[in-house]
Amino acid sequence: MELTMAAGTIATVPDITFRSDMTVELVKHAASDADVIWAARVSTKGEQSLADINADPQRSAGLINYLMRDRHGTPFEHSSMTFYVCAPIFVFREFMRHRTFSYNEESGRYRQLEPVFYVPGPDRKLVQTGKPGAYDFTPGTPAQHALVTETVQTACKQSYVAYLEMLEAGVAREVARTVLPVGLYSSMYATCNARALMNFLSLRIKHPEAAYPSFPQREIEMVAEQMEQLWAVLMPLTHAAFERSGRVCP
């Protein structure tokens, strides 16, 4: 793809990509149901709880359920999961409200940002009704979806052209990036323990069996759903207790 810069020069622009999905990968972890058990039993067994590090968690499922039910949360903190997340910048701005996570995000100061942008998919509900904090969303009309797609794509293309124009002129990356929208995809590592993840999931997934309703933005919910699927495999007893408790973080 070629474009004409303001100065009249011709530059080649990489193909601009539009996505409506999110990428979540479990990069590394030290997380199991057994971690909850030995951490909890130190309160009654002291150093002898170390013998439970390799214990069969199935035999102690009742302990995990008790801890979850009575909200003894700290034993769930003795685990670690690192996720790779690729999502639009506006998703990351919501993510970073969760200060119990550790984050490292790619930097537009040190690398040229790739032209990958978010555009809502055909199943994304577009029309918002209701009061703040309790919004309902309904599907948009075909005309609304067409308008959103065309408008987003046009704006993103124009912004990326402007970004390249400044880079071509020798403007620093950290300055040129100011024209890019929050729909640009970024990537980061997010590290958390099981307790922090349960808090995140309780707020960022709208679940019919949750004790307390939540109304997350759909795009961060798409990320949260994938994270929950990965975590449920690592800590099935803890995940089941979380669901049994009404998805309330201990």
Descriptive key words:
250 residues, 10 strands, Gyrase A, domain 2, alpha+beta
- The count of helical stretches stands at 8
Arithmetic mean pLDDT: 91
Integer tally of domains: 1
Quaternary organisation:
single chain
Number of strands: 10
Radius of gyration, CA atoms, in whole angstroms: 22 Å
The largest pleated sheet is described as: 4 strands, antiparallel
Derived from helix and strand composition plus strand pairing, the structural class reads: alpha+beta
Strand content: 15-25%
Task: Give start-end ranges of low-pLDDT stretches.
Answer: none
Topology-level CATH name: Gyrase A, domain 2
Quickly name the level 1 CATH class: Alpha Beta
CATH architecture heading: 2-Layer Sandwich
Helix and strand run: EEEEHHEHEEEEHHEHHH
Helical percentage: 25-40%
Q: Major sheet: order of its strands? A: 4-5-10-6
Note the overall shape.
globular
User: End-to-end span in angstroms?
Assistant: 53 Å
Question: What does this entry look like structurally?
Answer:
The chain has 250 residues and is an alpha+beta fold. The chain has a single domain (2-244), classed as Gyrase A, domain 2 (2-Layer Sandwich). Helix content is 39%, strand content 20%. It is built from 8 helices and 10 strands. The chain has helices at 33-45, 61-69, 89-95, 142-168, 173-176, 194-204, 218-234, 236-244; strands spanning 2-4, 10-12, 17-19, 23-30, 80-88, 102-105, 116-118, 127-131, 134-138, 185-192. Strands 4-5-10-6 form a 4-stranded antiparallel β-sheet. Strands 1-2 form a two-stranded antiparallel ribbon. Strands 3-7 form a two-stranded parallel sheet. Strand 1 and strand 2 (10-12) form a beta hairpin. Helix 2 (61-69) runs parallel beside helix 8 (236-244), helix 6 (194-204) packs antiparallel against helix 7 and helix 7 (218-234) packs across helix 8 (236-244). The longest helix has 27 residues, at 142-168. The chain is globular and about 65 Å long. The relative contact order is 0.20. The mean pLDDT is 91.
